[in-house]
Amino acid sequence: MIVHRAPGKLFVAGEFAVVEPGRSAVLVAVDRYVEVAVAPGTDPAAEVTVRSDLSVTARLRRVGGRLVALDSSAAELGHVITAIETVEQFAGELGRAPVAVELTIASTMHEHGTKFGLGSSGAVTAAVVAALSEFLGIELTAAQRFRLALLASVRLDRRPSGADLAVSTWGGWLAYRAPDREAVHILSARHGLRHAMHADWPGLSIRPLRAPPDVDLLVGWTGTPASTGAQLAKVYGGDVRASAAYRTFLRESGTCVAALESAVREGDSAWLLRGVRRFHAILRAFDSAARLGIFTERLTALCATAEAAGGAAKPSGAGGGDCGIALLHGDARTAAAALSEQWQAQGIRPLPVAISTSAGAAR
Description:
The protein is an alpha+beta fold. The protein has helices at residues 78-93, 120-135, 142-156, 163-170, 181-191, 193-198, 228-237, 244-266, 269-290, 297-308, 336-345; strands at residues 2-13, 24-40, 48-52, 56-63, 66-69, 101-107, 110-111, 114-115, 173-177, 205-209, 215-221, 312-315, 323-329, 349-351.
């Protein structure tokens, strides 16, 4: 049996902007994981079996390079099935014959099926790619695992940036710049995965960062799950991307993220917090202009309470619910316990998470 796990993610700055090719974000990996175990298949009727801790078991057979469900349970496992198909196609291009396999998935990114918004789709894709490729005897570097995971992801949706896949692969603090996912998808469709894996991906940049040693990260969950896909649809589906407000947002986000990344590299925690506050303001102005609903009542309260305690806070990710983050530095670090209590009084649940280092990433 081969077992791999991949951590979840939180955006420090750059969300929404990073969906555009060549745009940057800074993220951190957190110690909530998706774990994938791969073993030889034992079901005589199914070539691939997937068991999930969400009380879902899918039994599948291979038809023309695709996995076809023997029952209706596979509907909730789209990212998993597409990741398996992608790894098996890559294995086939390397001359490896398919074998019967069973995958077992467990996650600490949800509670009784309710997700916290920590990037479980990206983490499960990264973990499946890492575990199944090793099971099939394919040795991949971190960069190759990321690329294969992104090639799987774009088969389902070209809008997400792939930042979650990167941080689930490398762990720790990460600066990420997105490639053109449509171009990547076309490349693999025309020339195959082996070619696409080794081709140039314009715009892509992945830079691990040293964790700030004197900054505490607090995470609050609003209690309301949010759909990243639904939030991105508001941007892609209307006139937002053609607006002056969006162009302003992209320009200001780029400047802010570059300064924030420099602050992390130089170990300047005070400037890091200033960068988070600046991105909070940029995101709020964009939300007000585009009417995306990023800042809910509880996310607004989460940020205001953290700021009053001396921290820097913002929604993390697509907003509309899910999580917000607060960074505390200097004397404000002593306010962490009191801040958590205030969040709870406002109906915000503090999540006990810590930064997941590179040792906790999918490998």
